[in-house]
Design goal:
Elements lengths: L14 H26 L3 H31 L2
Helix pairs in contact: 1-2
Length: 76
C-alpha cells in the first residue's frame, strides 16, 4: 500500500504529483480506517476519520520539517 502514493512521481508533473500523491495517500488511509472498523466493531465514520486525521497530522508535520530543513540547509 505504501507504493501507491509514489506512482505520481514516476512521471514528474511538479506540484500536480504532490496533489495526486496526497489524494491517493488519504484514499488509502480512508480504506484502511474503514477496514479497521470491521475488526474493531467501531463506527466506520469514526475509524475512517481517525486514520485520515492521523495521516493529515503526519503529512503537515513532515512537510513542515522538509520546508524547515530546506531553508536551514540553504542558509549554509
Amino acid at each position: 500500500g505504501a507504493f501507491i502514493p509514489l506512482f505520481p512521481y514516476l512521471v514528474n508533473l511538479g506540484l500536480i504529483s504532490l496533489v495526486i500523491s496526497s489524494v491517493l495517500s488519504f484514499s488509502m488511509l480512508a480504506l484502511a480506517g474503514a477496514f479497521k472498523t470491521r475488526i474493531t466493531g467501531e463506527s466506520k465514520l469514526k475509524g475512517l476519520s481517525e486514520m485520515v486525521l492521523i495521516g493529515l497530522i503526519a503529512f503537515v508535520f513532515s512537510y513542515g520539517v522538509g520546508i524547515f530543513l530546506e531553508q536551514f540547509i540553504a542558509g549554509f
